[in-house]
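Minutes, methods subgroup
Present: GH (chair), OT, SY

1. OT presented the first of two proteins processed in the latest run. Sequence and structure tokens recorded below as shown on screen.
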Amino acid sequence: MRKTFYLKILFILFSSQLFAQAPTNSFKTDKALEKKLQVLVKDFQGVAGIYVKHLKKNTGVAIQADTVFPTASMIKVPITIGLFNKIEKGELDYHAILTYKDSLLYAGEDILGSFKDGEKIALSKVAMLMITTSDNTASLWCQAMATGTAINEWLAANGFENTRVNSRTAGREAYRKIYGWGQTTPREMAELLVKIRKGEVINPAASERIYRNMVRIYWDGEALSQIPPTIQVASKQGAVNQSRSEVFLVNAPSGDYVVCVTTKNQKDESWTRNNEGYQLLRNVSKIVWEHYEPKFQWTAPAGIEKWY
């Protein structure tokens, strides 16, 4: 009898733990918007996740929003947070002049990678290049200064259970083989951007500096191309062969809204504008903008595609 009683108690405790950890929407589902977005992912050749939240209306949509996806370059958002956390602690100086070394090079078309060994650059500019142009050499330099372990500790301490740096981080090798540089869920990456917007990352001053960097994005041909250029947007993209993703927070007339679109296992691995993942990013952005801002009269000019 006593054994049965204890088993029941254990079952209740275990069930409550599962319930407590189960992801729930912190908003009311927008059924009309959900229907429009479901059409986009219905025949997508791969796995797609979408998280949308209008902060003022407290409405949104969650489609595969708690599924883990590769971040690709979106991991540079957590890296920049880790970097600013070190700066706030006094372990790094935002205005320090650093010396570039050839050993830092990550082969590609990055701006920092074109530097000569021994050239000088301010840490503030390295941090800007990591976000604004998604410079990989700059990003890996920033990660080395912030450390993947410390970044992941900050994420865990702040309630982000699935967002992690994997590459060049002890104990994350098995995850790197699956997800690459980093991993996240649409919900977590979007909510991370919301925390920055609200001044809740590190402190209001650090959050503001991070946000300013995130509204100066060179890669504006996908989600940002579907939003009027007069509207401020903070964003970060990520792309590898089988994954195209983007997180963006729009300072819209009706109030701020955040969107994160992620993909994995894409059949289309092309690197053209017509890649199915890139099309999904643009289509989601367009639908969400028009849904929340139906009275805002704006149409992208004819022929604008050639500039992207």
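2. SY then presented the second protein from the same run.
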Amino acid sequence: MGRGNTLQLDTEPQWPTQLDDLGDARPIGLWLRGRPDLRTWALRSVAVVGARACTPYGAHMAQTLAAGLAERGWVVVSGAAYGVDGAAHRGALASGGATAAVLACGVDIAYPRGHTELLGRIAGQGIVLGELPPGSHPTPSRFVLRNRVIAALTRGTVVVEAAHRSGSLVTARRAQRLGRFTMGVPGPATSGLSGGVHELLRGEAVLVTDAAEVVELVGGMGELAPERRGPVFARDLLDRDTLRVLEALPAGRPAHADDVALAAGTGTDEVIGRLYELHSLGFVERQGEGWQLTTQSPEGGTQTGGARRGGH
């Protein structure tokens, strides 16, 4: 493969064999402009595609997703178009990572023209490739052909914002048919630009929100996304029996220990011991002969009786 702006037709030995999954639709060869070994890169690559006229949300998600993938050693593949494609390439480049642009024209043609500088950066830090010979200009049918290369070249395709008739959906569905992973980043339910993504997610696509979740799907064993959970509150640290007593207390009024025991399904002596424990932790207070939830919970929020068993 040539370096910098040198062009080369790649057939062997750097040919990415996963393109052979396209069968008769397999490209005859690929023209390359850039530095790396395409065959090695393709083994650890993910496509990030989406709407050209994306929203700021879509651009942000594409850029941060691509940056996270690049930081984890994954190659970000896209089509160098405006919108999501450009944001994905920039995210990978900004993190010092790897990215590849698959074009629907000759690799010596800057298309779109507004991405001339971006394509130069991709060729310097990554790779620009396409199956059309130098000098070829894009046409609508060539974009459809380009999409099959993106789908086959990568281990999975992530769609970030796409309307119902978006070309990105063509890429994702081709990836599905090839047995690749298909993923989607959800958007607002009211956004037409997320309608196509949501349609995918109702089918075979997997919902992802960041690079860790993408890598968990396409990566090897052990590359798991961190467990997602909210902050740990004081009540989360209570043992099961103490929590059952707390939940048996009615909201807004005191209750006698006998009534709490009945609601909790345990003995009165056991309940009294648990109530004193909860008192020391700030969950309950004495009200004459009864016990009542404190106005302010130990977490700082106001106690309510929304989901409590007692008090009926």
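Chair's summary of item 2: The chain has two domains: 7-218, 234-293.
Next meeting: continue with the remaining queue.
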